[in-house]
Amino acid sequence: MNITILTLFPEMFEGFTTNSIIKRALGKGVATIKVVNIRDYTKDKYGRTDTPPIGGGSGLIEKAQPIVDALKANKTENSHVILMSPRGRTYDEKMAKSYAKLDDLVIICGHYEGIDERVNAYVDELVSIGDYILTGGEIPAMGIADSVIRLLDGAITSSSLDEESFNDSILEYPQYTEPYEFEGQTVPDILYSGNHQAVAKWRRKQALALTKKHRPDLFAKLELSKQDKKLLDELERGEEGKWEIEAKEKGHKFLHDKEKKNG
User: Fold this and answer.
1) To which H or E segment does residue 134 belong?
2) Strand pairing partners for 84?
3) Looking at residue 225, which CATH number applies to its domain?
4) Which of residues 106, 126, 158 is at a domain's end?
5) What is the pLDDT along the chain (263 residues), one digit of tens a residue?
6) Which terminus in the chain has less CB density within 10 A, N or C?
């Protein structure tokens, strides 16, 4: 997959493309990122890409000509062109998955007080990352590129994608590391039970609880199974399920050794 980013500040992407998972994905050829400097396409005799708005108003507006010419020079027949805009649809994981299926994605970063309205006629979609104001579209473009690239085959291990926040409109369950006890807080005993089915059930229960508490908007979208409803009922009553108690009892010896070691 190729991602082309049109920006006035290409240097902002240097760290993004040369670190961590993105660097490895690009190195393996999983994806390519082409950063295009919009300034290279201006026909303004002073090299400017922005101007005060016609009719008056504060700030500077990006001209249509440099953006449109940069777009025409760098897109292909298969390009899906998006413009970062507060008018756009709010970006989410479903959109990331749809973009990950594309061969070519072009992202236009706005800046200053906005862009010439006529640029909208050259894009396929307007996209927003939320109802707040940033100085430009570069950070949103990085967010979109990151979320798309990590979904591509070979970018990260497939198992890492199986259970994550926002998959199926649910937050991820809590995760823990050693040691068993840290400043008075201990790892939930069931995770040491050795019962993989019970652990999976507990994780689902916790994911439901976290989503209901922190993201009721996501929770409202869930299609709850019969098991989900039983788990939620246990949460409502503040009780452990029989399955949970039995799993912990069978893992009691291991837990006892753990507590003794940390005691």
Assistant:
1) none
2) 127
3) 1.10.1270.20
4) 158
5) 999 999 999 999 999 999 989 999 999 999 999 999 999 999 999 999 999 988 888 889 999 999 999 999 999 999 999 999 888 999 999 999 999 999 999 999 988 778 999 999 999 999 999 988 888 999 999 999 999 999 999 998 655 545 544 456 788 899 998 888 889 888 899 999 889 999 999 999 999 999 999 989 889 989 999 999 999 999 999 989 999 999 988 876 666 665 556 55
6) C
Neighbours of 191 (CB within 10 A): 19
Strands 185-186 and 181-182, how do they pair? antiparallel
3-state secondary structure of 173: coil
Report in angstroms the alpha-carbon separations of 61 from 50, 52, 87, 115, 118. Answer: 5, 6, 17, 5, 12
Kindly calculate the radius of gyration of the chain based on its CA atoms and give it in whole angstroms: 25
Instruction: Tell me the residue range of the domain where 105 lies.
Output: 2-158
Which residues on neighbouring strands pair with residue 185, listed in sequence order? 182
Give the H or E element holding residue 2. Answer: strand 2-7
Q: Report d(CA 195, CA 227) in Å as an integer.
A: 18
Statement to judge: residues 11 and 54 lie in one domain: yes
Same domain? 231 vs 134: no
